[in-house]
Design a protein that fits this description.
heterodimer, A: about 300 residues, alpha/beta, Glutaredoxin, 2 domains, 13 helices, elongated, B: about 290 residues, mainly alpha, two-stranded antiparallel sheet, 16 helices, TlpA family protein disulfide reductase (chain A), oxidoreductase activity (chain A), coiled coil (chain A), Thioredoxin-like_sf (chain A), Thioredoxin_ResA/DsbE_sf (chain A)
Chain lengths: ~300, ~290
């Protein structure tokens, strides 16, 4: 009886060892998975933000849109015959087809259904495809450029929402005056500092941020604070934030806004406070967010370096 | 009122695993590097489990205690203190043995084969954890404050290896901003974690015995907790096998409800006459519990 239970016990402990080994193995793998994963999550957040010339990347985005429009115009101009092509397309689509050059893909579709088209139609299509081929080449080139300017080289994710966090901004300062994205447009660079009232390192860097604001004003920039306790016009939070700002001698602008707005969601996703980001004229976040107080000299230097790059 | 000792003791490893999982439910967050910030985060978990672990279900009671004591608005936290008293009375250090993720972590580390050393001669170090509780969790956060009355969570900030293991490491793996912000403090605390890991392989649960302020809190309640160990003096033959089996260096027959007992049940397993068992409820008069 006793022996038996002894065996069961040792079996159990073996099971536990096996399980723990399995778990640690799992962790080892997820550890590796993490780092590659991390690269992509980071990219989606920071996409194009790390481009030193944010204005340039915005321009290439516009150009890209224009090129897509040109293609669509071609399809619209010869709508009848292209609709015929598109009707044939769905049946031919397979995985390989999706990977080939779009112009080749169109050609293949037409070639394999040559009988369905009159000679005139076929000519129109061929000409159009050559134009499209030219446009496609330009698109490819542009996409490469955008990818290159994005230091992380990731173009697959739709990112405008995460960098253009302050585009179309609407909110108030803590005195209740309306503030919109013209605040960012009037500055060469806006330093936005996220904080909350219970955060000691945040509160302790406020006076340093105020100094930075004075300095930046001369250079055509500005510091703006966002206290996450004040969102949604929370009056108690605003009152407390104002007291702290006053006590720390910080007189620069602090903003409040709806927590379910784009910037509200961005603020809600921040896990490390204080976090400081740089925002350009168009309301795009430029570069990586800074974590930690700028009362630390090395953090301050890093931040100033980035600011200099933008100015 | 006897609990089924076989069940609890036999499946202790699994119970610990389940408790760790329940304490860290939001596993996908580990890959996103985001913290769960929902309503449940306002509730404390029983074990030592970092609030800043992306997967964490609730708040660490020790961390929450320091946060409130160190805030400018409050001087004392009735909620967390009440929580300590409630859990201390209901379960005591059973939490350490069965529910604490960091306890389980050390148990698993101790299973790594190699030389094992006894902590019996290091008993005075046990009192260190009470000092850490008093100084780093209560006094420093409450007294060392800036001009606005805000203190630091000293234990979390300067000591806790669980914070590095569950918070700093997973977050910095996934989040490059946090990775960039790591400094000397991280290096220092990472060294503490490595030290605790190495010691855990050599000794049984060194962190629980010597450092853990949460264990210190629960240990104060071990004698008055509803959950107790009972030694049936009629069945006991006085072989002292239990005390030799006890990895927390408790003399089981003399002091079954010693502050250091984590209720792991190792003594029950070895008792030749099944004289030791769990007892839940008010103290049984015929037992000579507290000597």
């Amino acid at each position: 009886m006793k022996n038996k239970s002894g065996i069961v016990n040792s079996m159990n402990s073996k099971k536990v060892i096996a399980a723990s080994l399995a778990i640690s193995l799992l962790f080892a793998f997820t550890g590796c998975g993490n780092s590659s994963d991390s690269a992509t999550t980071e990219n989606t957040k920071q996409e194009a933000a790390s481009a030193t010339d944010a204005g340039g990347s915005a321009a290439s985005d516009e150009k890209l849109d224009d090129l897509y429009q040109q293609e669509n115009r071609i399809f619209a101009d010869h709508k009848n015959v292209w609709d015929k092509v598109f009707a044939l397309m769905s049946k031919n689509t397979n995985d390989n087809a999706m990977n080939e050059n779009y112009a080749d893909f169109l050609t293949n579709t037409i070639e394999s259904n040559k009988d369905s088209f009159s000679e005139e139609e076929y000519d129109t299509l061929s000409k159009d495809i050559e134009t499209i081929r030219g446009i496609e080449e330009e698109i490819a080139k542009l996409e490469k450029e955008i990818a290159a300017s994005d230091s992380s080289g990731n173009t697959s994710s739709g990112s405008a929402e995460s960098t253009g966090v302050f585009r179309g901004f609407k909110g108030k300062d803590l005195d209740g005056n309306d503030v919109d994205d013209s605040l960012f447009a009037q500055n060469k660079v806006t330093v936005v500092n996220f904080w909350f009232s219970g955060c000691k390192p945040c509160v302790e860097e406020l006076s340093k941020l105020n100094e930075l604001n004075d300095k930046l004003k001369e250079m055509g920039g500005e510091v703006v604070g966002i206290n996450t306790d004040t969102l949604d016009d929370n009056q108690d939070g605003i009152k407390e934030a104002k007291e702290i700002l006053k006590a720390q001698g910080a007189s620069y602008k602090n903003l409040t806004f709806d927590s379910d707005s784009t910037v509200g969601k961005y603020a809600g996703d921040i896990m490390a406070f204080p976090t400081t980001v740089l925002v350009d004229k168009d309301g795009n976040i430029v570069g990586e967010p800074f974590m930690g107080g700028i009362d630390d000299p090395s953090n301050y230097e890093q931040l100033m370096e980035q600011i200099q790059n933008i100015l | 009122m006897k609990s089924n000792k076989n069940f609890l003791v036999r499946f202790r490893g699994w119970i610990q695993a389940a408790a760790t999982l329940l304490t860290n439910l939001h596993i996908p967050n580990l890959f996103k590097g985001k913290l769960y910030q929902g309503k449940a985060k306002t509730i404390c978990v029983p074990g030592l489990n970092c609030y800043s672990c992306p997967a964490a279900t609730g708040a660490c009671p020790i961390g929450a205690f320091q946060a409130v004591v160190g805030s400018s608005k409050f001087k004392f936290t009735y909620y967390i203190t009440g929580f300590f008293i409630l859990l201390g009375v209901l379960l005591g250090r059973f939490i350490c043995g069965f529910l604490c993720p960091f306890g389980w972590f050390q148990d698993l580390l101790h299973k790594i084969p190699g030389k094992k050393l006894s902590t019996a001669k290091l008993k005075p170090l046990r009192y260190l954890k009470y000092l850490i509780l008093a100084v780093f969790v209560i006094l420093l956060p409450a007294l060392v404050t800036n001009s606005l009355g805000m203190g630091d969570p000293f234990f979390c900030k300067y000591i806790c290896p669980q914070g590095v293991l569950e918070g700093a490491i997973p977050l910095s793996l996934v989040n490059s901003g946090i990775r960039a912000a790591l400094g000397h403090l991280f290096t220092f605390k990472f060294a503490i974690l490595v030290l605790v890991i190495l010691l855990s392989i050599l000794f049984y649960r060194p962190f629980c015995k010597w450092i853990c302020p949460l264990g210190a809190v629960y240990s104060l309640f071990n004698r008055v907790s509803f959950l107790k160990l009972q030694v049936d003096s009629e069945k006991c033959v006085g072989c002292q096998k239990c005390s030799h089996a006890c990895k927390m260096d408790v003399n089981v027959t003399d002091t079954p409800n010693h502050p250091e007992c984590i209720r792991c049940g190792a003594c029950m397993k070895v008792c030749p006459t099944n004289a030791i068992c769990y007892h839940y409820g008010f103290s049984n008069k015929k037992q000579a519990d507290n000597k």
